[in-house]
Structures are given as structure tokens and as C-alpha cells.
Design brief:
Helix content: 40-55%
Oligomer: single chain
Structural class: alpha+beta
Shape: globular
CATH architecture of the domain at 1-185: Sandwich
CATH superfamily of the domain at 1-185: tricorn interacting facor f3 domain
Largest sheet: 8 strands, mixed
Strand order of the largest sheet: 6-5-9-3-2-12-15-14
Bound molecules: (3S)-3,7-diaminoheptanoic acid, zinc ion
Strand content: 15-25%
Length: 849
């Protein structure tokens, strides 16, 4: 075997695989160190191909024997796969390989987690199971026989035979290898069923380890809601007689949509009021829906190659966002999505890791499961829907499902159905898929003789490999308000297609106040010089909930910048604006909680750096804290009343109304803690009847430097619950004061429960540290050193998770020379590590640029 250097793969180089597969059968003899996999694959020439070498991917597999049409052969084997001579026509490939799931710490392919066998094959994990053309455009019907003494043996599709020590599964739907799954373990099912609109009765099971069976009820309800919703809204029905979900403790991603056998990170499926917060419930519901929706957008119609990842991910995120909006309210959901997009995707899009929604090259595709592909990808679907209208969107989707069912499709296929269904030329829209970077839209306006004109200018900064940007089509939803708050012009979509473009509104009595980019109609940064008063007016009066919230957000950003740069306290107009929203009981409590929340410290750092200043994370931390205190003092008369009004009695329910009240109560609690030294929070901690209340109180105490007793009490109460302990690790670090955050993280890595091989636990420590901006960027550089030490340690065991976490350094260029040097040193140290994985190597190289 020889080591191949990491290779860059290009979209432009795509060629179809020279063979098609009629059928695959796999036989697994499970054993921790010596699992045997016997495969039989029927190949025939692919008429769409010009031919080529017969190459099967295979990594970390030991070939025992191989045969073609029954005759033993000796292929040429490398550490990436094998080649051999094959007959001209159809032929049958057979092979036996040995793999060692127990030592597979990368958590890709077949591995073990808490005594169970499980798989993760997306994107390229199947090649660690057996030799195979491991690419999404090779779709085949799989039959799988699993042999093991373990009681529960699962794979994709329908169970066709079962006996002592074996089970046989058949999946009638052709699928790429990345959707293959196998699970074997001592598992317990919580079951239900669902009858589809086509009359199919589907058995639903959530499989968990003994002890967790009490945490499945919510997941089953969410699954049924998702199944019903997809029928009602998209006309998509489920297509097998069984749908299994398995909870796994050690998992790199959130969950995986394997056909008929979804595998979930246990953090995203197990739910109970005592152990899960409202946010956990909402997220679990969304992820269950997301993976379920993939059955049509991802599985029935898959991707031709991994460059098309956004075809399934952007669309499926968009669908899960619609679902959550329908379940829990669109206004709040849109704000939450915009917060995430701006915090994480804008940051990515404006740094060294910026890449198009459809990238053009990669070394390791796992590095491209990003907020850009997922969340910006979803925004592109939302923009398309806005541009063509709801009816046309529905027609285009119908066409997509009928035309491409069973295909491995491309973005070109996707856009073609829209063009066909609507007659619209989408050539310019396609730039959204190809150009990286967040467009900045600058706004000027004037008013003369009853005509109000808005002038827009768009500009996208250069991103790695893309110096020049062309104008994109941007749907800008605009409404105009009269000075008395009434609507002068209802929301309308302005389609910006040029670098500079003006839009006029005629027949107005007086100069209106514009509300621009309503509902966050495009993933752009709006730049408009405006007054505090105008923002305060929109915060008080805008009829569009997104823009109403955003006006408050913009005010807060300006106030924070003022505190950091000039020590200017928050102006009254802002504080009064907050007070008015808070006391307005006609407003949804969840919305009011969002208005009370401040932008992140990272957001302030980004804003300062865009304004040409060097952010000092410690000064930013103190500015945020000062603003919290000032807000608390300004609102102090009403805080106790709002807190009391938003306590939810009775049995816990995770529904949006109850969760919204708790969100507001807990937002208020955080301000109260700045006034009463945490008295109310300590009381709430003691009387908390659910994890939402307990955790919120715990965070409030930690954030004001208290909570020593609660750290111990929480530990004593929850030490046996892995998922709750993840919260315990994370919260202590996330809320630690800047000067002790690294020390806290370091101490926790010495804790007996710090299992660094478990991705959830690793992220609970280092994700929290990276998220504590002032702590991570502490001037000594200790944060950088600690993270680098642990990434170097994690990389050989689990390159995928290590690589993803190097993104903590992506903002290094924003900071002053000392911090830059500290981060460079850390990145160089990672880069120079002997045997560094291609995954982490690619990330470090891109970050350093
Ligand atoms: N498709 C999977 C992601 C797999 C991650 C691979 N590194 C989950 C999802 O998006 O639904
Ligand atoms: Zn997905």
C-alpha cells in the first residue's frame, strides 16, 4: 500500500461512473475487531459513460478475497481502493473484507458506540465498509443480511427474514451508498404507527439503549407531525412499511437520513422535560422533520456529486424551517433563523473559509457541510419562492418530484424546473450558487413632490479565489410607513438586478419611513445611515415583525459600538424603545424575549472590524455587560411584574406558547440577576420543575460570577445523564469570566467525565470555549494554545470533528497583531503536526489563506 497525497477534486471534472449496478447484496458477520463483510454486486456498462478504469473505493478495509463471475482475481490495492481488469459486458463482483468497528474512532463507516454497532456513511464512509463505487450517482437496490448474537439487527428498507442470530433486510428503493445504514445492539423500541395518504400503514420505531426509553414520546409525535405536514404541504408520502430511528451517543453530526433507518445523535432525539430545554425540544422536532423530509429531497432525488450538496441540504433546511414556522409561528422562527445566519454564515462568508453555496473544489467534502451550504442554501430557496410566488413554487416542486424521482440531480436540474414552470430566466439567479460572500446593499433615499425614491447599490467583497463579483438578483421586500405609524405602502418586493438601482413610490402625502428587507427577504447586509429616532420608531411601530425586531437589533449594535469606542452610555430612546416592547402584553412573549436579547460579542467584534477598528474582546465583553446593567436598571420597575406574569404553571409542555413565556421570563431573569445579585435566579434554580427553568437559572448565576453551589448540586443531580452533563460542561465555560474561562476549560478536561473521544463532550468544552469570545481571545494566547493542543490530540482519532472545530480560528485576521500572532502560531503548530489528517490540513490551509 502507498500513501496518496490529499487530492483536490473539481466540479468541472465530473464524469459518470462507467458501470451501473443492478443489485447489491451484503452479508455482515459482526465482531468488534474482525467484522467480515461479504459483498456481491452486479455491474453492467453505463451507456452514459465513455468507459474508464474499474476502480472501487475502499479505505481501512482488508481484502480477504475477490472474484469476478466466480473466478478468483488479484486486484491492485492501494490505501484508497482497488482496480482490476473486468469483462466487457455485465459481470458479478464478489469480495470478502475484514474491518474493525471497535477501533474505528473516526465514527465514519461501521463503528461501535456504547456497545452497539452503527454506521455513518455520508459523505464517503461506505468505502470503510467494503469496496464499492462510493459516489452518490451510483444508485442500487440493497439486500443486507446481518449476523450477530445481539438482539436487535437493523438495516435499510423492509425486514424480509429473521431468525436466530440473523436478520435480512431489503430496500426496494435504489440508493447511493451514503444512505446505507446498519445498527446492531441491545436496544428498546418505542413504537407507533402512521397511515399515509396513500393508505400505507407505517410502523414507526425509535430505538434507544435501555434506560432511555422514557425519552422517545416527543420524537414520535414530532415524526408523525412531519409525515403529515409533508403530505399536506408538498404532497410527499412515505414509501416503506417501516421507519426506524436509532439514538447513538457517539456521532459526528446531528443526525442522518439513511433510507428507512435514520440514525440520530442522541442529543437530537432523546427528550424529556426534566432533561431537555425548550430549545432542545424545538431543535429535536426540527431535526426529526429535517431527516424525514430528506426521504424525498435527498433520498428519492439525490445529488449527482457532492458539489450539489446544497440541492438536498438547502432545500431540506428550507422545508424544515417552513415546518417549524407552521408549528410554532413564522415571525419568531424567521428571526431565529436570521440570528443564526448572521452569526455563523455571515461570519463564514466574510472570512477565509468563504465558499459558494455550490463549491467548485474540495479536498475533504466533510469540510463543506457548512452553514453556507445549509443555511445560505436554504435562503436561496426562500428567495426563489419569493421571486416566483407561492403558486409557481408549488408547480415547480411538483415538476421536480415527478421529473427527477430516482435521479441523482444537479442545481441545473433544479433551476430548470423553475424556468419551465414559470417561464423565468434564472441565469442571473444562478450566481447565488456560484459567488461566495455576502452582498452589501447600501441604501440612500429622497423625497420630492410626493415621490419617494430609494437608491440601492450592491457590492460583494472579494472572497478566496473570487476577486470580481457580478451583481446578483436580490428580492428586497419594502414597506413604507407614515409618520403616525399607519401603512403608506404595503410590502412589495423590489427586484434588484443591477449594481445600482432606484425604485420610486409616487403619490405620497409626506415623506414616509421605509421598512427595508422585511422578513429578511434576502441574505444580505443592509447598510443605511439612519438616525436613532428612525430606528426607535420602527422598533415601536413597524408592522413587519422581523424588521421591528431588527430595528431594535440595529440600535443595540450601534449602542454597543458607542460604548466600546467612546464609553457613551445607551441613549434614552433605545432604552425607552425596549421598555415599550417589553410592557406591551399584546406582543408574543417569544418575540419580546428576542427583542430583549443582545447581539453576540462576536457580532460586535465583526461590526468594529468592518468599521476599520481592531476589536478588543475584553472591552467588548465589558461593554456588553455594562449595557445589560444599564438595561436592567432602566427596566427595573417592570421586570418583577413581567417575570411573574411569565411563569408557566401546571404540567410541562414544550409548545410554542408555553416556551415563549418561559423564554421571556428567563430573559427577564438575566436582567434581574444584574440587580439582585442572583437572588431570584437562585430561587428559580431551587424550585425549577423542568430543565428549561433549571438551566436558565444556572446560566444567570454563572454569568454574574455566582453559582458555585449550583455547579456541585447540578453535578450531583445529573452526573449519570450524559446529555445533561454536556450542558454542565458547556455552561460553566460559556459563562466563565474572561480571565478564568481557559482555566475553567482546562480543569474540566481533567474531569473524570471528560471523554474527549465523544464528539458531544468534546464540543461541550471546546465549542463553549470558542464561543466565549473574551475568554478564548484572552491576551495571553492561552485559549489558542489549549484549543490547538486538543485539536492535535483529537485529529488522529476523529479528523472530521477536529477539522470542523478549527473554524474557531477563522476570524484571526480581525484582531490586533498579538492575537493574530497567537492564532497563527496555534494554526502553524496544527499544520506542522506529523500525520495531520487531510481534513484538518485543508481547514488550516484555508484559514491561513
Ligand atoms: N446529511 C447529514 C449530514 C451528514 C454529515 C456528514 N459529514 C445530516 C443532514 O443534513 O440531514
Ligand atoms: Zn440534511
Amino acid at each position: 500500500m502507498k500513501d496518496a497525497a490529499p487530492q483536490t477534486i473539481f466540479l468541472a471534472d465530473y464524469t459518470p461512473f462507467p458501470w451501473l449496478i443492478d443489485a447489491v447484496s451484503l452479508e455482515f458477520h459482526l465482531s468488534p475487531d474482525k467484522t467480515r463483510v461479504i459483498s456481491k454486486i452486479v455491474f453492467r456498462p453505463n451507456p452514459a459513460s465513455k468507459g474508464g478504469e474499474f476502480f472501487l473505493h475502499g479505505e481501512h478495509v482488508t481484502l480477504i478475497w475477490a472474484k469476478i463471475d466466480g473466478a478468483t482475481i488479484t486486484p491492485t490495492v492501494t490505501d484508497k481502493g482497488l482496480t482490476c481488469a473486468v469483462p466487457d459486458g455485465a459481470f458479478t463482483w464478489e469480495a470478502e473484507v475484514e474491518i474493525a468497528p471497535a477501533t474505528n474512532t473516526a465514527l465514519e463507516g461501521l463503528y461501535m458506540s456504547s456497545g452497539m454497532y452503527c454506521t455513518q456513511c455520508e459523505a464517503e464512509g461506505f468505502r470503510r465498509i467494503t469496496y464499492y463505487p462510493d459516489r452518490p450517482d451510483v444508485m442500487a437496490v440493497f439486500t443486507v443480511r446481518v449476523e450477530s448474537a445481539l438482539p436487535v439487527l437493523l438495516s435499510n428498507g423492509d425486514l424480509v427474514a429473521q431468525g436466530d442470530g440473523f436478520a435480512q433486510w431489503h430496500d426496494p428503493w435504489p440508493k447511493p451508498a451514503y444512505l446505507f445504514a446498519l445498527v446492531a445492539g441491545d436496544l428498546i423500541a418505542t413504537s407507533d404507527n402512521f397511515t399515509t395518504m396513500e393508505g400505507r400503514n407505517v410502523a414507526l420505531n425509535i430505538w434507544v439503549r435501555p434506560g432511555d426509553e422514557g425519552k422517545c414520546a416527543f420524537g414520535l409525535e414530532a415524526l408523525k407531525s412531519a409525515m403529515a405536514w409533508d403530505e399536506q404541504v408538498y404532497g410527499c408520502a412515505y414509501d416503506l412499511d417501516i421507519f426506524n430511528i436509532v439514538a447513538v451517543d457517539d456521532f459526528n453530526a446531528g443526525a442522518m437520513e439513511n433510507k428507512g433507518l435514520n440514525i440520530f445523535n442522541s442529543a437530537l432525539i432523546l427528550a424529556s422535560p426534566a432533561t431537555s430545554t425548550d430549545r432542545d425540544f424545538e431543535r429535536i422536532e426540527a431535526v426529526i422533520a429535517h431527516e424525514y423530509f430528506h426521504n424525498w429531497t435527498g433520498n428519492r432525488i439525490t445529488c449527482r456529486d457532492w458539489f450539489q450538496l446544497c440541492l438536498k441540504e438547502g432545500l431540506t433546511v428550507f422545508r424544515d424551517q417552513q415546518f417549524t414556522g407552521d408549528m410554532r409561528g413564522h415571525a419568531v422562527k424567521r428571526i431565529e433563523d436570521a440570528i443564526l445566519l448572521r452569526a455563523r454564515q455571515f461570519r463564514e462568508d466574510n472570512g477565509p473559509l468563504a465558499h459558494p453555496v455550490r463549491p467548485e473544489s474540495f479536498v475533504e467534502i466533510n469540510n463543506f457541510y457548512t452553514v453556507t451550504v445549509y443555511e445560505k442554501g436554504a435562503e436561496l430557496i426562500g428567495m426563489l419562492k419569493r421571486l416566483v410566488g407561492d403558486d409557481a413554487y408549488a408547480r415547480a416542486l411538483d415538476l421536480y418530484f415527478t421529473r427527477h424521482d430516482g435521479d441523482a440531480a444537479t442545481i441545473e436540474d433544479w433551476l430548470a424546473v423553475f424556468t419551465e414552470a414559470t417561464g423565468r430566466d434564472l441565469t442571473q439567479f444562478k450566481r447565488w450558487y456560484a459567488q461566495a460572500g455576502t452582498p452589501r446593499v447600501t441604501v440612500l433615499d429622497d423625497f420630492k413632490d410626493g415621490t419617494y425614491t430609494i437608491h440601492f447599490e450592491q457590492k460583494t467583497n472579494p472572497t478566496p479565489g473570487q476577486d470580481e463579483k457580478l451583481p446578483q438578483v436580490i428580492p428586497i421586500a419594502v414597506g413604507l410607513l407614515n409618520p403616525d405609524g399607519s401603512e403608506a405602502v404595503a410590502t412589495r418586493i423590489l427586484e434588484m438586478t443591477q449594481d445600482r438601482q432606484s425604485f420610486a413610490f409616487t403619490g405620497l402625502d409626506s415623506r414616509p419611513i421605509p421598512s427595508i428587507l422585511r422578513d429578511f427577504s434576502a441574505p444580505v447586509i443592509l447598510e443605511r445611515d439612519t438616525t436613532m429616532n428612525e430606528r426607535a420608531f420602527l422598533l415601536a411601530r413597524d408592522t413587519d415583525p422581523f424588521n421591528r425586531w431588527d430595528a431594535g437589533r440595529e440600535l443595540a449594535r450601534a449602542v454597543l459600538r458607542g460604548i466600546v469606542t467612546a464609553g457613551t452610555p445607551a441613549p434614552r430612546a433605545y432604552l425607552d424603545g425596549l421598555a415599550a416592547v417589553l410592557r406591551d402584553d399584546s406582543l408574543d412573549p417569544a418575540f419580546r424575549a428576542l427583542v430583549l436579547s443582545l447581539p453576540s460579542e462576536d457580532d460586535t467584534a465583526q461590526a468594529l472590524s468592518e468599521a476599520g477598528q481592531t476589536p478588543d474582546p475584553l472591552a467588548i465583553y465589558h461593554a456588553h455587560e455594562a449595557l445589560r446593567v444599564q438595561i436592567a436598571q432602566h427596566l427595573q420597575d417592570m421586570l418583577p411584574r413581567i417575570y411573574a406574569q411569565n411563569q408557566v404553571g401546571g404540567p410541562y409542555s414544550p409548545d410554542a406558547v408555553a416556551a415563549g413565556k418561559r423564554a421571556l421570563g428567563n430573559a427577564v431573569l438575566a436582567y434581574l440577576a444584574r440587580l439582585d445579585g442572583g437572588m431570584q435566579a437562585a430561587q428559580q434554580y431551587d424550585s425549577a420543575a423542568n430543565m428549561t427553568q433549571q438551566l436558565a437559572a444556572f446560566s444567570c448565576l454563572l454569568a454574574i460570577g455566582k453559582g458555585v453551589d449550583q455547579v456541585q448540586a447540578f453535578y450531583d443531580q445529573w452526573q449519570d445523564d450524559r446529555l445533561v452533563m454536556d450542558k454542565w460542561f458547556a455552561l460553566q465555560i460559556a459563562n466563565a469570566a474572561p480571565e478564568v474561562a481557559v482555566q475553567t476549560a482546562k480543569a474540566l478536561t481533567q474531569h473524570a467525565l471528560f471523554d474527549w473521544r465523544n464528539p458531544n463532550r468534546f464540543r461541550s468544552v471546546f465549542g463553549a470555549l470558542a464561543g466565549n469570545a473574551a475568554g478564548f481571545h484572552v491576551a495571553s494566547g492561552a485559549g489558542y494554545d489549549l484549543l490547538a493542543d486538543w485539536l492535535i490530540r483529537l485529529d488522529p482519532a476523529n479528523p472530521q470533528t477536529a477539522a470542523r472545530m478549527t473554524a474557531a480560528f477563522e476570524t484571526w485576521r480581525r484582531y490586533g497583531p498579538d492575537r493574530q500572532a497567537g492564532m497563527r502560531t496555534a494554526l502553524d503548530r496544527i499544520r506542522q503536526t506529523k500525520g495531520l489528517s487531510p481534513d484538518t490540513g485543508e481547514m488550516v490551509a484555508r484559514i491561513l489563506g
